[in-house]
Design goal:
Length: about 240
Amino acid sequence: MTMLVMTGTGTGVGKTITTAAIAALAVAGGQRVAVLKPAQTGVRPDEPGDLQDVVRLAGGDVTTRELRRYPDPLSPEAAARRSGLPTLDPGEIAQAASDLDTAHDLTLIEGAGGLLVRFDRTGASLADVAWSLGSLVIIVAEPGLGTLNATALTAEVATKRGLTIAGVIIGAWPAEPDLAALSNLEDLPVAAGAPLLGVLPAGLGTASREEFLTAARAGLSPWFGGEFDPELFAGCASAEK
């Protein structure tokens, strides 16, 4: 049984797509996979959320569970406060993850935004969940300018809280990367203090399931069942530029 906590350096960095890609490869490898979304914000009860995207891309064999849904596009704590709905407690999240873990080979816990986004007024966050579960953390980062600072801050906080960063994944690689993005292929692992475990192309969320699985295999490390080689990718990306 394995649990991975998926966090981002911010909002819109490709965290859900990355979670779906890891899930898709695991399912293709015959694993039983669960994805837990503790808090979904900015989505009404009748609208599809991140977990629907995971199932659409990774397949219906993935077990999904969402604990709270808030309509306002805010942090879970702020969204709960505005809506009057109950907040989330890290213990509830950890228990849900543990329950899923007993019946699955891989459980992915996808946070909302970054590692320290607040779940409640006490400041409880995804970092507390990862610590209580003893789970490895995957950082999903942007490719371009500014990502090194955000990645380093995330890794430093994680380390100080006793967490282990398994690696960093670029969640949305542009079709025409600039100098900063190309340089960050080498610098992101330094900022994270952990290896580059994948680079996924931007726009992957619109792919068919077959195309998505092919891209996931090419863009993720053998650690996840993929074929991604960071040195080979960097060499090819630089040559194309």
